[in-house]
Amino acid sequence: MRVRGTLQIVTLCCGFMPSILSAEAPAITAFSPAGGQRGQTVEVTAQGKLGTPPLSFWSNRPELIATFPEKPEKTFSLTIPASAAPGMALLRITNAEGASSLRPFVIGVIPEIHETEQNEQLSAAQKIESLPVTLNGALNKSGDVDTYALSLKKGQTLVAEMTANRLLGSPMDAVMQVVSAEGFVIIQNDDDRGNDPLIAYEIPESGTYYLRTFGFPSTPRSTIRFSGGADWLYRLTITTGPFVDHLQPLAVTAGVETTAQAVGWNLPSATIMIPAQAEVGLTPYLVDQSANDVPLEVVVHPVMIEPKPETLINQIPIMISGQILAAGEIDAFRIDGKKGVAMVLRADARSIGSQLDPVLRLTDLDGKQLTEVDDLAREKYDSEVTYTPKVDGPLIVAIRDRFEHGSERHYYRLSIKPPEAVGYSMGVAQDHYELKVDDKPLEIPVIVNRDKGFDEPIDVTIEGLPQGVTSATVVSEPKGDSSKKVTLKLERGKVESFSGPIRIVATSRGDAPITTSATPAFSQAAGILDLIWLTVIKKPADKTAEQSPEE
To answer: What's the rounded Cα separation, in Å, for the pair 91 and 93?
Structure first.
């Protein structure tokens, strides 16, 4: 009674005062574990603040179901249906105060376990009882080292792949080692797919082996030492069974039933059928009994598998799926060039998980070099060149590895197509915004990226706003400050509250209007989602509490 009376006296004096325990919006940096097996319910812990209940859940994978406890906690249950497709999901937690940024969560296909701490030394290594398994762990403090003990047999091929920096956004450049029972490092890997390691090793003698991992910051610092943190999460898939590295061809044509050949380790069956009904885009596929899924690109144009050098390619656009199998190997193809007709040649390799660092070289039939290109930009190792022939006739395009390496894992997709029409793209800094109770407009800056030569006005607006919230269309002019950036202003009218997705849409005013939508500058969401979460915060009731005489 004393505390209650005191609060009412303050309220009476001040006219209005929010609850001492102010409501908080979700502020989540990561989810732990960072994934789970389909067909299971996983207890997920939010790194950061889960927010004030009641809470809601949103994912780009609507089949996922979250259940929150009655009392405020950082942990909730996530149910993954057995029918869920494997691969990446994006999760968001919302409440009346706002929303968290989208965070990644991987849906796996094999049993999963969790790291148990105090496993730094070989003598304290966490024993892995059965394979295959995906282990959810974290290098959660500076100097952390995680060690796992495996009982392996002679002749088995151990495959261990880490998912951390590339897909989860963990700020780590991990190192992984296979260590003998005597403590000797047998094999080590750090950068395989981006900053994430992968080891494939044939076991020479039966016995106990140790898998050990530690890491450095993915963004270099002045100090060189093992590092760690709460958000240094990883998923470590360990198997002596089937594991797929990639499929050949690396892409298939929509509307055509295609047989794809799996390339990897321990594969009893290496072919899968890609149906003619496959949707255009990147889709994960499973090879029988494999511990992992593998993505395959479905495109609308023809795909060839390494045509013979004498074959004249006269159909553009087209894609070539190939491999540099041996050290020093060069793949070369003939293209029917047309005078004055530009073409874009692009080699995708590192960006799709290949070990190849591609170099593209274009020559005439006499071997005279017309152009050669290497990296697109710093730390972007794929290659692209636009070339306009000066005469009619065949050209030779050659692709090789920058360091003259080769293997089944040195694969590439070489696309040859006309230049795309000049256009533009749009971006925003965040994937969630809050319209607060102070009646001030919410300003959302929108970055406009114009291709060179694109000089059309662009109308920018918002779709999906709730009734009572308005935003005027703004125009990005071809010149001036608005050519690079515009600001949308959301005004609050008669609206109580709102929590849901909106979309920022732009349309150019040319003879052939181009419509696109803005994507958030978030590593896992860019290019995947153009939905932005808007929370209109409910205004508190404007009531003056009176103190009861008896209190």
So the answer is: 7
Q: Note the CATH architecture for domain 27-108.
A: Sandwich (2.60)
Same fold: 27-108 with 424-536: yes
Tell me what pLDDT residue 248 has.
Answer: 94
Distance CA 392, CA 332 (A): 19
Measured distance CA(514)–CA(518) in Å, rounded? 13
**CATH number, domain 424-536:** 2.60.40.10
pLDDT (tens digit, 9 = 90+) per residue, 45-62? Answer: 999 998 999 999 999 999
CA angle (262 as vertex; 261, 266 as ends), nearest 5: 135
Three-state SS sequence of 202-247: ECCCCEEEEEEEEEEECCCCCCCCCCCCCCCEEEEEEECCCEEEEE
For the sheet with 258-265, list strands across it.
243-248, 258-265, 271-274
At 62, phi and psi to the nearest 5? Answer: -65, -15
The DSSP H or E segment spanning 48 is strand 41-49
Give the model confidence (pLDDT) of 151-188 as tens digits: 999 999 999 999 999 999 999 999 999 999 999 999 99
CATH architecture of 304-417: Sandwich (2.60)
d(CA 342, CA 395): 13
Assess whether pLDDT exceeds 60 at residue 75: yes
Residue 164's beta-bridge partner residues? none
Domain map of the chain by residue range? Answer: 27-108, 114-239, 247-299, 304-417, 424-536
Helix (H, G, I), strand (E, B), or coil: what is residue 11?
A: helix
pTM of the model: 0.89
Lookup: tokens for 16: 């209005």
CB atoms within 10 A of CB 270: 16
Q: In angstroms, rounded to a whole number, what is the distance separating the alpha carbons of residues 451 and 499? A: 35
Q: For the structural domain made of 114-239, what CATH number should be given?
A: 2.60.120.380
- In 3D, which of 481, 352, 371 has the Cα closest to residue 413? 352
Instruction: Kindly list the distances between the CA atom of residue 60 and the CA atoms of 57, 104, 105, 423, 525, in Å, as whole numbers in the listed order.
Output: 11, 10, 11, 28, 10
Residue labelled with tokens 């050519």: 483
Respond yes or no on whether the N-terminal peptide bond of residue 513 is cis (omega within 30° of 0): no
* Helix/strand/coil for 544: coil
Residue among 176, 178, 174 nearest 158 (CA):
178
What is the C-alpha to C-alpha distance for residues 293 and 86, in angstroms, rounded to an integer? 7
Measured CA to CA, the distance from residue 13 to residue 1 in angstroms comes to: 18
Q: How far apart are CA 31 and CA 75, in angstroms?
A: 9
